[in-house]
Amino acid sequence: MAMTTEHFFRRPAVLLPGLLAVLLAACDGGAGHSHGEEGRGHDHVAEPGSSAASERPSRVVTRFNDATELFVEYPVLVAGEASRFAAHLTWLDGYQPVDSGRLTVTLNRDGKVVAGFRVGRPTRGGLYTPEVTPREAGTFTMVLTWEEGDRRTVHRLEGVRVYASRAEAPKQLAAGGEGDITFLKEQQWRLPFGTAVATERRLRATVPATGTLQAAPAGDRRVTAPVPGRLQAPEGGFPEAGQQVASGEVLARIVPRLGTGTDLATLRLAVTEAESEYRMARRERRRLEGLLAKDAVPERRVAEARSRARVAQARLEAARQRLAAYQAEKGKGDGPAGVPVLAGAEGRVAELRATPGTQVREGDALMRVVNRRRLWLVARVPEAEASRLKRPTGAWVTPTGHDRALKVDTAAGAHLLSAGQTVDPETRTVPVTFALANPGDLRAGTSAAVRVWTGKGAKSLAVPTAAVQKEAGEAVVYVQTSGEAFARRPVTLGTQEGGYVAVTSGLEPGERVVTQGSYLVRLAASGDTGAGHGHAH
């Protein structure tokens, strides 16, 4: 949204001689020209009281486009007389001065360029000082165009009057805005500063809450010891905290404790005996099955032989499994291999609670594997605000350490899991839980400030919450009335959502408020900025 503010004023006639000398020495020789012909010009604005500006008040205009702010001062235009401009250009993104590129000033009428004037670079960062000498009187559209490479930004000033003589030029000064606060461009550029336009936004009513971003239960797995024994590293090494693991990955092995009087030789003997018993039972079964085919034995004896063979086979498998729990893998020697401990879920190792060599019991926690791709937001709404909750559809979440709120919206993939029906007797809060995709690689367990949505949105005039200051209990914003003029404005606030708050009175749509540096503007009102006074054009 473009904004224009302009008024007439006279600058103070006093300029320290030393400062003037420094400024003249710093002139960069930027050229000014009319109708395409190069000419030399001064890089400072003619001060009131000088021959060039005698009895000519200065015009001040502030304009905004999507990229830049233009704050320009110049003596009113008179045909055939030079007017030195002081055009301050500021990037709105980051609020820094434009410190390179050329500026062209044209006077247009009926869509045609009547006169053009250009400087190839700023006199200093943010300040361009073209000299404009119109040839004829009339009303024009003044266009200020900044260009550098393929970048371009344009400001148009409609209805600019060029007077035929000084006698026709206005001599009366319009009074400035009552109570205006002066905060110069040189101060704004040196300090953290930013502005935003008051516009209508759809805001939803919210209630405040504290919250925690937790890993979803399926993504937070405690890895425990399946058997008692001694913990040892697997073939690929023991995992480290923060290591990414797959669900079937072996994280450790446990060498089970042997029973009293049990050793590897005994286990191997048990396998050998079971193998012999199974071979004999299988041979007897086959012999009896052959006799049954000749009707030489009753069928009962064959059934018993088959049963004995199945039992022998089961004993053999059990013996082999007991031996496998202790015996090294093939080709790895005779050391114990151990029972594998699997991750059980994909994620990162968040905690290690045991180290290789530790004796563990069955069920002891060994480590924790967390998958952060899905999170749960558990918001705790104060009991006094819980009556406003019906079926929340989302929330604004500001994780600790973050400046901007994140949006949790059931219409955009989040899910409402529960809106607590009971009040926690200790915290006197009601829990509200959402499931959501991790919006920015947030850590599980991160605390957050939360505002839970309570209903549908409504359009309201709104400003960023950063624009509002509390002064003696009163909500106040600082409105930029022109490039270097500001006004203190008490406001009445309404619904707050995300980083914005509704303003129900005290502000008009399109007005520009200070969002960063408002406290410095407040200090400027008392004359206590410590940043110096006056321009150095």
UniProtKB/TrEMBL annotation:
Reading the lineage from the top rank, the first entry is Bacteria
Instruction: Name the InterPro entries on file.
Output: Beta-barrel_RND_2 (IPR058792), CzcB_C (IPR058649), MFP_Cation_Efflux (IPR051909), RND_pump_MFP (IPR006143)
What SUPFAM superfamilies does the database record attribute to this sequence? Answer: HlyD-like secretion proteins
Q: Does the keyword Transferase apply?
A: no
Residues in CusB-like beta-barrel domain copies: 375-452
Q: Does the keyword Transport apply?
A: yes
Q: Which residues form the CzcB-like C-terminal circularly permuted SH3-like domain?
A: 461-521
Q: Which residues form a coiled coil?
A: 264-329
Q: Which residue ranges have biased composition labelled Basic and acidic residues?
A: 34-46
Query: Which controlled-vocabulary keywords does the entry list?
Result: Coiled coil, Transport
Q: Which Gene3D superfamilies match?
A: 2.40.30.170, 2.40.420.20, 2.40.50.100, Helix hairpin bin
Q: Where are the transmembrane segments?
A: none
The segments labelled Disordered in the record are: 32-58
Q: Which family does it belong to?
A: Belongs to the membrane fusion protein (MFP) (TC 8.A.1) family.
What is this protein's record name?
Efflux RND transporter periplasmic adaptor subunit
- Source organism (scientific name): Thiohalorhabdus methylotrophus
